[in-house]
Amino acid sequence: MTKFIIRRFLSLIPTMFVIVTLSFFLIRFAPGGPFSGEKVLPEQVIQNLMKKYHMDQPMYKQYLEYLGNVLRGDFGPSFRYKESTVNELIGESFPTSIILGSVALAFALVAGLGVGVGSALKQNKWQDYTAMSFAVIGISVPMFVVGPVLQLAFAMKLHWLPVTGWITGRAGLAALVLPALTLGFPYFAYIARLSRASILEVLRSDYVRTARAKGLSERVVIWRHVLKGALLPVVSYIGPAFAGIITGSLVVEQVFVVPGIGQIFVQSALNRDYTLIMGEVIVYSLLLVAMNFLVDIVYGFLDPRIAYK
Amino acid sequence: MPSNNNQAINEFNQQVKPVSLWADAWKRLRKNRMALLGLWIVVIMAAITIAAPLLPLYDYTKLDLYHSNLPPSFRTAGEVALSTMQARMDKIQGMIDNGRKDLQPDLDKVKADYAKVQADMVTNPAEKRVYLLGTDYLGRDMLARTIYGGRISMMVGLIGTVTAVLLGILIGAIAGYTGGRLDNLLMRFVDIMYGLPYMLIVIIMMSMFRKEGASSIVILFIAIALVSWLDIARVVRGQIISLKNSEFVEAARSMGASSGRIIFRHLLPNTLGVIIIFTTLLLPSFIMSESFLSFLGLGVSAPDASWGTLVSEGVQAMELYPWRLLVPAIVMTLFLFAMNFLGDGLRDALDPQSKNRA
User: Fold this and answer.
1) Which residues are within 8 A (CB) of B68 and not within 5 positions of it... i.e. 6 or more apart?
2) ipTM
């Protein structure tokens, strides 16, 4: 087991390396540059700026230098927000996105599993049909429709929750509800469908029949035997769900005006703020890769059939 | 005792008609009412969008500012425009009566428009149009825009899917069939690609390489297709590995069939079921991705429109002109709904033992 964890951990290094390299060159070879904005700068100014940001050097030298800096945890100065470094910009906005994303993921997991288990146990009854139709809606309707509709219903008409904005502390909980619901909704729907299907499958399996034949109570059968087996597909879906939540937060943060990292992502790409966008890609990828790593390990603990080779 | 005709004989010595995988699957699919409904919706919507140039639709690019934001109606555009202007004049008049004297110029402007449209009613054929589903902020027909938007959305979905399927089959088949080092290398590559936050890469590509005009669609296709073949490659590889040592492959090889022939003639047809399932599930996900990019302002550029652009335009005016959101959103959701039901039904029909049904 320890060996597996170490090996799995080491395999993260090439993945991160490819991500950094690929995005570095993708960004650098794109047409335009950080100084080709609407305002045309004089030639001399551009040359000085290029020198300041070491952009006058050959590409491979810039790449190696950047790689070295990143390994030391330094993402460099932002090209657009002159007074801040990328580390500062990400440090300010990132915690917000993390809070939003983890609340959304928690909602998707808890509600999704609950609804999934519920409708599996009530298979082909009206509860099941209602829940599953609701789940298909969740999968088919884009977030940028769900978000504004929730805003219209719960904030503008009913006045239960704030429309937009982000407040830290206790009062902020109300402002967190709608964005987190919007962000988690499609993943809630998918997890509900996934867990329902896998529970139905496990219910038909031999070991559940054995458990029942032993005379265990229905509650013990469900909690001890069925749920554990049915959890596996859900656990392996956490990785993709997390990736989806990361990208979804780009939209949700715009709809609800949340000052997170997603808000500046698109803008920094359009601005060609090389260092900022690289920093964001690296932070997002690290999160994603770490999440997949964790999921693999949890999966190993849950499923003793997996051999760690 | 071998039978002479084509019909197999089972252990009870009864003649049964041999059922092919496809006939069997079709039988199962026909029993699934939701999947059939999905199939019909998809077929009808696809037929409408394909036939769009032949349909008596108004030009979806033509602007008419006197007709902006008209609600859906069976009446002619002139009448609807006059009644919305009348309502607006009454509202402004009421505000002026309550002391908002500064609104007088606005009232005069609406009055002038009213007179203009009233004069046009007889002469201008445009006033005789009927906007069944209303108009958008530039007075373009929502019906035509939604149908032409569907064209673009479906095309994005289709091209993305076809590229993903072709690339996925090619790489998956090569990796699975050759095995060994090459397989290892290719699958390592796929693993690494899986770790990429692929939507972010697509966003970077779209925002940096995109130019206004037709080329933006091409970049969109490239960006989406580039990262979408991973699942198919994995599945095809797995299927081919599990089949490549089976007897019918050995038989083909002993008869001197080339590797290419074995792959394309014997192995791939056996993976077709899985590929079809993935195709029906990939298509809606591409349409979703495109609409996502459109919402961020990185999708198809004007005057072209996709369902995604229409919906994101509609969201901005949702409170005042709800039909501008509802029309494209309902149509798009209906299509995605239908595709999802069809995909689920196909999975149940083609792969009844599937493990991860969801």
Assistant:
1) B135, B136, B137, B138, B139
2) 0.78
